Amino acid sequence: MIPPQPIQIQCPQCRQPHIAWIQSIVDVGQQPELKDRLLRGRLNLITCPHCGGKGMLSIPLLYHDPSKEMLLCLMPMELNLMREDQERLIGAMTNALMEALPPEKRKGYLLQPRTLFSLQRLIEEILEADGVTREMLDEQVERARLVQDLLDRLDDEERLKALVAQRREELTYELFLTLATSMETAWEDGDERLAQRLAQLQEKLLELAGPPPSPIPEPLPEGATYEEVIQTLLEAEGERQLQGLVIANRPLLDYGFFQALTGQIEAAQSAGEAERAKQLMDLRARIVEITDELDRQVQAALERAAGLLRHILESDDPRRVIQERIEEIDETFLMVLSANIAQARAEGKEEIAGGLEVLYGYVLSRLEAQMPPELQLINRLLRVESSEAREKLLRREPALVDERFLDLVRAVAEDARRQRQREIVERLGEIEAQVERFLEGGQSGSEGRAGHARGT
């Protein structure tokens, strides 16, 4: 592992000197979590201890991805370094990387790093190597521009309505993801006003245009035959729909599925149906490519989660690190933590297992604290067993329980159904029915909000 290095800098806002810790080498093989921080603009993001000002340092950076035999060097043009100085820095960073690698991983491509002169170009190179095409990058830029155009009209409802009507087809699931990412970044940067305006925009878009359709198609029924799965995949309209179908039905694409697909290829070849045989072989090749890429993404996510867990456990203050890195904690991290708890139990290490369970509980509490109040209430409803306990929770939070809350319960249930979480779907069905009865009984959210405002 290549640790960050301390340097002394002067804050551009208050002009006070202070020590900053920088990461000049990103080795994805050893520290996969650094790649995510780089792509999200969080790497070498410095906060001044004197005035609280934030900014990203523009420094030379070496990026190494051994799985792709990729070595890139960022040499920011604004530094105005002489060629000799650039070569000296590149040589020093490359030597530091080589020394951190085991001998068998020191390959020839490490002697020929490719130099780039802007952070934007570095990020584009990394994304393109991950299969993100130039077209996809251009689409993301267009989505960001549309979010800004919508935000500029937030205070003028008529202009906002006109733009929504004009660009309705572009208000896709991906655009809402862009909006959510912008909101998260604003909160992380301490720009509370921007984050609140983005949240207002999100609510207004949902009001004017409704929720966007999910990009993932409906999964086939669990009892679907291999023949039905193959035919559905053959009928996919375009690459994006095929990818969505593969993602939605991944549990069905097992060894038996590929046996059935190979059987259909052989049958078509025997019958002299050359065109159908080619169509099936092309389908098999694309499915293998998509599933292999999904597996790589899952493996990379597991490695990032394991690295983050290791960093938390090795720190002097795990809770502080969790709070600082909370945006990196997701379902994969919780799965890795659960696996470590199970392993400790299996090995009879009860003290370690107990400590990890306490950590797990703390992580859940921090994640829940960041959720909107409505989702926090749904989580609490899922944790209680009896209808009486759920009734008490609903009566305790009448301001939250209205038709929109009921729609949210249904949306969460639909998401769980897509993920084949049967037990969760059943529990959410019970909650939905109880919320409906609660609303029919006159305990509307609007009444609750009015009572709450009156202090009753």
Task: Report what the structure shows.
- The structure is a single chain.
- With about 450 residues, this protein is α/β, with parallel strands linked by helices.
- The chain has 5 domains: about 5-130, no CATH class; about 135-210; about 225-290, no CATH class; about 315-370, no CATH class; about 370-455.
- It has 19 helices and 8 strands.
- It has a 4-stranded mixed β-sheet with strand order 3-6-7-8. Strands 1-2 form a two-stranded antiparallel sheet. A two-stranded antiparallel sheet has the order 4-5.
- β7 (about 70-75), α2 (about 85-100) and β8 (about 115) form a beta-alpha-beta unit.
- It is globular.
- Residues about 445-455 have low confidence and may be disordered.
Which descriptors would you attach to this protein?
disordered C terminus; globular; 4-stranded mixed sheet; 8 strands; two-stranded antiparallel ribbon; 5 domains
